[in-house]
Amino acid sequence: MVDKELKVGAATSSSPSVTPVSLVTVDHVRAALTSDKGAAAQLTAWEVVDFTKKGDNYACLVTSVEVKYEIDGKSSEVVYVIKINSGKTFGGENMFDLFFEKECKFFLDIAPQINSILREIGHTEINVPKCFHASLEKGKEVIFLEDLRARGYKMADRKQGLDEAHTILVLRELARLHAASLLLQNKTPDDDLGEKYPYLKIGMAYLMKNYNSMFKVMKDNVIFGKTIIKKVGGYERVAAWIDMIIPNLVDIFEQLECGEPKVVCHGDCWNNNLLFRYSETSRPEEVMLLDMQLTDHSVPAADLNYLLYTSMAGDVRKPNIEAFLGSYYTTFKDIMEAGGQTVPFTQAQLLKDFRDRNLAGSLFAIMFVPVMLSETEGAVDSSKDDEEDLEETLRKTREKSLEMLDTNPLGHAHHRSLLMPVTLTTPLALHHSHQGAAFRIAPASRMADKEPKIGAATSSSPSVTPESLVTENHVRTALMSDKGAAAQLTAWKVVDFTKKGDNYACLVTSVEVKYEIDGKSSEVVYVVKLNSGKTIGGDSLIHIVFEKESSFFLDIAPQINSVLKEIGHTEINVPKCFHASLEEGKEVIFLEDLRARGYKMADRRRGLDKAHTTLVLRELARLHAASLLLQNKTPYKAIGEKYSHLKIGIFYFIKNYKAMLNVMKDSVAFSQTIIKTVEGYERVNAWMDTIIPKLVDIFEQLEYGEPKVVCHGDCWINNLLFRYSKTGHPEDVMLLDLQLTNYSAPAADLNYLLYTSMSGDVRKPNIEVFMGSYYTTFKDIMEAGGQTVPFTQAQLLKDFREKNLIGSMFAILVRLKQRTAFSPSPHQPLCSQPPKQLPTRRHKAPYSPTQINSRMADKEPKVGAATSSSPSVTPKSLVTENHVRAALMSDKGAAAQLTAWKVVDFTKKGDNYTCLVTSVEVKYEIDGKSSEVVYVVKINSGKTFGGENMFDLFFEKECKFFLDIAPQINSALREIGHTEINVPKCFHISLEKGKEVIFLEDLRARGYKMADRKQGLDEAHTTLVLRELARLHAASLLLQNKTPDKALGEKYPVLKIGIDYFVNNHDGLLNMIRESATVVQTIMKNVGGYEKVTAWIDTIIPRIADIFSEQLQRGEPKVVCHGDCWINNLLFRYSETGHPEDVMLLDLQLINYSAPAADLNYLLYTSMTGDVRKPNIEAFLGSYYTAFKDIMEAGGQTIPFTEAQLLKDFKDMNLAGLNIRHGVCTACAF
Question: Could you tell me the CA-to-CA distances from 1080 to 838, 1073, 1103 in Å, in that order?
């Protein structure tokens, strides 16, 4: 408040015509104050204080009133934000009166009813400013709203656009608004809200049809968007598209009024009409929707398109569309179900509705270009008096926007790249990738501001670099080969795009080239492969493989392509080669940039599926068959003799280069190292012992068999690029890295591909189908060349199987590196020496959880019969009829009569080391009606670990959780109106010594299943888990606070036994973690580049026990922690579109009493890649903190730590998290 106070009734403003001084009266202020503070509040002074800047708030005036008042003699102050109808017209039409009336009526009519609905179902009110007074007195219309600044709300960075975290908050709030309005509508289904409140029928399409001025603004903005697009350059097709749609603007916006269900939409929900409140770490926690002047009755997709196409960059929107709509749908569903109703559309239908209205979204985006460009200093003043001035204002705004393209930072190249994805949303934006490395070249891409002169090159390679190898002559030669002799080189530069660890055998980079033909400038990019000059074990293998690839492109590929063209087929699918030089020490190959044609890698962690594999097999068949046609042209001379480099394959290298043989031996030995940590693979381990001495003989099989064809030699997932359809289906494949091409039987390539590039679940059931696809294509090529296939499909399958041992060797060599945290090249040794051994022996790693895939057998046993294949302690000996009856009665009630049951194992060998997990299928009757149910049963295995009975203790801890702790936590949650904790329901427990069992619900029946363990958790999965952990932790704290004098850890001693206890008291577990750290260290040493990390691991191995003791016991508050929360102990339920909606926490056998950061480190370091964890740490902890805070506040308590303290606690325990990761990741290597 300014020092000099005004008496009641005084007001100040600088507005020229309709001003706060003329419209804000003492009666307005009194009415707002009474509504806000009650009748006892006495107004003592007030003044109008403008806080908006020049150019803001064209449709109405926005100001504030600072008010002083007294209640019972005590002085206080409050500020209100005031919206005032400006009285302006536009094009002679009073649209702004209509806007103002719509907003007033929203606050007077709609918001109170929506809030009433939300309160009825136990939810908070809609997030819009509180309205304390509204007057629609003609010519003096005002709205008094709360000042959200006082609650810490502020705008997001409008130039940057919304990121994922901001967007999800907005979508959830829109979902609450939409769903609550639908519940309101469903209360009176015969009385349409649009009829009851006619102003809701006035949306964008109505305004454009009925107000010429609105149509003109929209049309002019679209035309102006086209002007900007032309000025930026490179978007000629978009500009032409705009010309085509301008006559159809009204029809396009009418799409927004079609469809069902109709809900109350915001109508103008974009970045400028949103305020956010942030955590101490600047993470957005809550959003407020502002400016409800365009609210209308439309389909949800109208608001969704408006928001997602106006308020963020394409880089945020495009990859997250399904995740965004999933968040919206989940919240919408929550509101509807809380109101006892179902969602009247599926998530898939929502996505379709959204996409059906993308054209309107694109237009919204284009219309906002001038707004975005003009939001900077020197904005045009929009507070003019008459409509001629307003027309002039719009004209000047557009002129200013064009000027800013060149003078404002938004005009620079970097900002253009940000601007265009926000605004231009047709499919013309180009995004390319190569070998997993992101690389974008915009349609109008520019070289750096200062271009290198011809011949300049840049690179970060440490020794042999593109700068020393790529010359101007190379670039000129490649350009001429590609574009013809008329192409004149003007500038070029080397741009690296691969990451550390890629391309061990050679350097791979790119060259961006500028050139002219007949005075017209153009650009092109080439991928360049360079001989790295490296050796393996002192041998110059790399030079040989580089020469082989060069010779393939120079000699073999042209002849194979000639054969294919002769028979009317397309050329072989390999990159075009524009130049190759084998000058000693300066070897280079210039290839086409396949990114420009839309090719990219498949998901390497997931492996190839059936569709991808079939494409590759067909292309291999074309290569093989065409080479056979080529061979048959000169039958007297084998291609292997004519091109001697084809005789050099894997077998040649293993036989003649000791370094290559050592790579293979060390790979097998390292596989054994990991296999020894997993029980159940003793025979595999023994088999490996027998084959190591025979490796040369095994690979010699590659030399046998007819016919001989040109084989790729290194055909696996990393050496393939795919082009996809719009729906994500693979349509075409390119074979890369032809550096191991050789002359062998087809089965060599087939084994290599099928054993290195997919899971057994894809390969095994499809072998014959895969061979059939290959054979059919091979046959097509041969017959097109007038020849027959020299083998049958049955012979092909036989040849393939005879070489399966080699396939297994390839799998060990190649696939092992896919499953480790670090990926060396397939030509780099995985181990230079066997992993060093600690004095203690290796132990079995923590068990894997259940995988649920069983069905009721056709023939049922009588009551009491049980079957199992467990070797010693078995379900047959431990699951009794009494157990089954007790579980059934607990689940279905005393009326349930057991009629039959049987034990059905559904876990696979190697799962569930610490206990047995099986299922019991039960038939029962209630009142003569037959039914069935399945229970999952956990049984104490009685096993020991390193001679110690840890597993008895694990089992007891889990039993006590279900018997004692879970019921109390659930009671605490129900008391505050929340759902119970997400763990399986427990129906029966017996702790009889030696016969311990737990009967749990079968979560398969509710649609729960595991996430993809090879891929790890993504952001959506992780956020769900963190929220559930927060609910568990916070509810246990509420429980603790009920009896503050006695810690839960004292009341339930099993909680004091956590992983730190086991590490310090059981040598078996300590040794396993130590050896796991050693395995990781071995991998890193052989990959190279991690010397500091490996040295650091040496320092922590002796301190592991101390690290767990020091870190996991520190911190407050103590809460009930899961203790073993990682991907294998989680099940998820998914939406129809595959988005995770809910999570269940399993395997509570390590529950303990620790600080929250213990569980957070365990989860975040064991269950996802660093690419997911690192950039999202603050967002993840923000989600956790918000959920924890919600529970505490619902229980009437405050959270005893800040978000910043949580982040600090998490980081303080990171060392324990890393050590847990070592143990878990090594256990998962196979």
Answer: 14, 11, 17
- Assigned token pair, 676: 């020894």
pLDDT band at 37 (very low <50, low <70, confident <90, very high): very high
Pair 234, 330: CB distance under 8 Å: no
CB 722 within 8 A of CB 733: yes
Residue with tokens 């069905």: 855
Does the pLDDT value for residue 393 go beyond 70? no
Q: What is the mean pLDDT of residues 1150-1174?
A: 89
In sequence order, what are the beta bridge partners of 263? 298
Single out the residue of 860, 925, 862, 929 nearest to residue 897, CA to CA.
Answer: 925
- Beta strand residue intervals within 86-176, DSSP E: 131-135, 142-146, 153-154
Cross-strand pairs, 1144: 1131
Inter-axis angle of helices 1067-1087 and 1214-1227, to 10 degrees?
Answer: 90
Tens digits of residue pLDDT in 490-512: 999 999 887 654 555 678 999 99
Q: What is the pLDDT of residues 1017-1034, one digit of tens each?
A: 999 999 999 999 999 999
**DSSP for 415-433, written as a single string:** HHHHHHHHH--STT---EE
Examine the pLDDT at 92 and tell me if it is beyond 70.
no
| Cβ atoms of 603 and 1171 closer than 8 Å | no
Q: Any idea which of 875-889, 974-988, 1125-1139 has the lowest mean pLDDT?
A: 875-889
**Closest of 583, 593, 592, 546 to residue 468, by C-alpha:** 583
Top mean-pLDDT range of 56-65, 641-650, 1030-1039: 1030-1039
Q: How far apart are CA 323 and CA 325, in angstroms?
A: 6
> Residue 644: which residues within 8 A CB-CB, separation 6 or more?
none
CA dist 723 → 526, 687, 732, 756, 1056 (Å): 18, 40, 5, 21, 55
Output the six-digit token pair for 511.
Answer: 């060259």
Locate the DSSP E strands across 1028-1076: none
Residue 317: what residue type?
R
Phi, psi of 1179 (to 5 degrees): -65, -45
Q: To 10 degrees, what angle do helices 746-756 and 760-784 make?
A: 150
Q: CB neighbours (10 Å) of residue 1014? A: 14
Per the structure block, which two tokens stand in for 494?
A: 């080397």
CA distances from 934 to 59, 896, 999 (A): 63, 14, 10
pLDDT score for 852: 23
What CA–CA distance (Å, rounded) separates 1123 from 1162?
A: 8
Three-state secondary-structure class, residue 90: strand
Structure tokens at 219: 């049309």
Give SS3 for 590.
Answer: strand
Check if the beta carbon of residue 742 is closer than 8 Å to that of residue 646. Answer: yes
CB 117 within 8 A of CB 182: no
Is 980 within 8 Å of 1032 (Cβ atoms)?
Answer: no
Q: Torsion angle of alpha carbons 1022, 1023, 1026, 1028, nearest 10°?
A: -110
Q: Is 200 exposed, middle or buried (0-12, 13-18, 19+ CB in 10 A)?
A: buried
With contact defined as beta carbons under 8 Å apart, do 368 and 310 qualify? yes
Q: CA-to-CA distance for 601 and 775, rounded, in angstroms? A: 25
